[in-house]
């Protein structure tokens, strides 16, 4: 008997009719891609289980706490046998600054393969559509940030206890003012492995898309990323002024007036250039240029709102012709 062609075998595995890709319509292509994504998840799960059986002592983010042991007594008088099964992991994934084209390949694969995706409110819909599993979006509206974060933490823990793979999808990079460190410690403290997939941070990408390089030879040889919004509403200590430094402030547009007043009091010259980039890297991007003295009023008049990145320093105008 002649062996079946690879495409025929794959069609049988996917449960779809055999058909040459060139003759498929758009719906058939989408159905096949969805079936392939499901198959990928099943293969990844099977591979993880087999690897766990071959290497039960493999290390993890939390020093091996992600390995569970199922012990079964053999017949009376025999030695005890131990089966090591890898516990499900949570992956902290950076969704990038907003443009879906800036999502990394590793991030896209993680979102596609996850059973549960817990996403920040500002993650674009086009990225969320990559998910094949359940999607829950954080309800981090003003005044509810703490409650929304706790709800996501509890949802992630519940999914992991059910044996599901979890992706925590965060805007920008998880470890740049994204509470990624706190969440990694949360899951680790409950005995689960944590994997980190970095993302493109808006602290750099938004400025770049607005034509503002955070470093330029002869203008700025370093940059600082900070925030004017501290924990529980506090005001963190601001960096001191240096003419050759660029200052990028995240999550600060709602406190722009207080921020510029504090910068002035701390020695920033009132005529220091400031750029405010709203919804950077997206079609809704808006850029406002002013100075430390004038930016708060200018932003109010222009209706600048979050999400926005504030860039302070001479690089804001260094590319102006």
Query: Rg to the nearest angstrom?
Result: 25 Å
| Arithmetic mean of pLDDT | 83
N-to-C SSE series?
A: HHEEEHEHEHEHEHEEHEEHE
Number of strands: 12
Report the β-strand fraction as a percent range: 15-25%
SSE map:
Elements: H1 6-14, H2 26-54, E1 67-72, E2 81-86, E3 90-94, H3 105-113, E4 116-119, H4 125-128, E5 134-137, H5 145-161, E6 166-170, H6 180-189, E7 194-197, H7 202-209, E8 222-227, E9 245-250, H8 256-265, E10 273-278, E11 286-291, H9 295-302, E12 308-312
Parallel strand pairs: 3-6, 3-7, 4-5, 4-6, 8-9
Antiparallel strand pairs: 1-2, 9-12, 10-11, 10-12
Structure description:
With 321 residues, the protein is α/β, with parallel strands linked by helices. Helices cover 32% and strands 20% of the residues. It has helices spanning 6-14, 26-54, 105-113, 125-128, 145-161, 180-189, 202-209, 256-265, 295-302; strands at residues 67-72, 81-86, 90-94, 116-119, 134-137, 166-170, 194-197, 222-227, 245-250, 273-278, 286-291, 308-312. Strands 5-4-6-3-7 form a five-stranded parallel beta sheet, sandwiched between helices. The chain has a five-stranded mixed beta sheet with strand order 8-9-12-10-11, with helices on both faces. The longest helix is centred in the N-terminal third of the chain and has 29 residues, at 26-54. The model is unreliable at 1-5, 52-60 and 63-85 (pLDDT under 50).
């Amino acid at each position: 008997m002649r062996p079946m062609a690879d495409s025929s075998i794959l069609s049988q595995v996917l449960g779809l009719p055999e058909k040459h890709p060139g003759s498929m319509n758009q719906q058939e292509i989408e159905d096949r891609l969805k079936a392939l994504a499901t198959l990928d998840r099943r293969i990844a799960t099977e591979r993880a289980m087999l690897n766990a059986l071959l290497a039960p002592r493999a290390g993890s983010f939390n020093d091996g706490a992600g390995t569970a042991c199922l012990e079964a007594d053999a017949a009376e008088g025999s030695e005890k046998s131990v089966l090591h099964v890898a516990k499900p992991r949570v992956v902290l994934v950076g969704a990038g600054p907003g443009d879906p084209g800036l999502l990394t390949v590793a991030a896209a694969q993680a979102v596609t393969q996850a059973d549960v995706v817990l996403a920040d409110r500002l993650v674009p819909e086009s990225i969320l559509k990559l998910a094949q599993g359940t999607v829950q979006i954080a309800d981090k509206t003003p005044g509810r940030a703490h409650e929304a974060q706790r709800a996501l933490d509890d949802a992630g823990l519940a999914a992991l206890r059910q044996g599901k793979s979890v992706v925590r999808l965060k805007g920008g990079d998880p470890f740049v003012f994204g509470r990624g460190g706190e969440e990694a410690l949360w899951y680790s403290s409950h005995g689960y492995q944590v994997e980190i997939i970095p993302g493109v941070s808006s602290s750099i990408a938004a400025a770049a898309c607005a034509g503002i390089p955070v470093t330029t030879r002869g203008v700025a040889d370093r940059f600082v990323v900070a925030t004017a919004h501290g924990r529980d509403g506090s005001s963190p200590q601001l960096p001191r002024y240096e003419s050759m430094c660029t200052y990028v402030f995240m999550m600060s547009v709602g406190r722009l007036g207080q921020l510029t007043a504090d910068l002035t009091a701390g020695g920033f010259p009132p005529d220091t250039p400031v750029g405010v980039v709203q919804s950077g890297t997206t079609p809704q991007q808006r850029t406002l240029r002013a100075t430390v003295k004038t930016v708060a009023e200018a932003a109010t008049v222009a209706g600048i709102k979050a999400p926005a990145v504030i860039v302070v320093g001479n690089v804001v105008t260094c590319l102006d012709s």
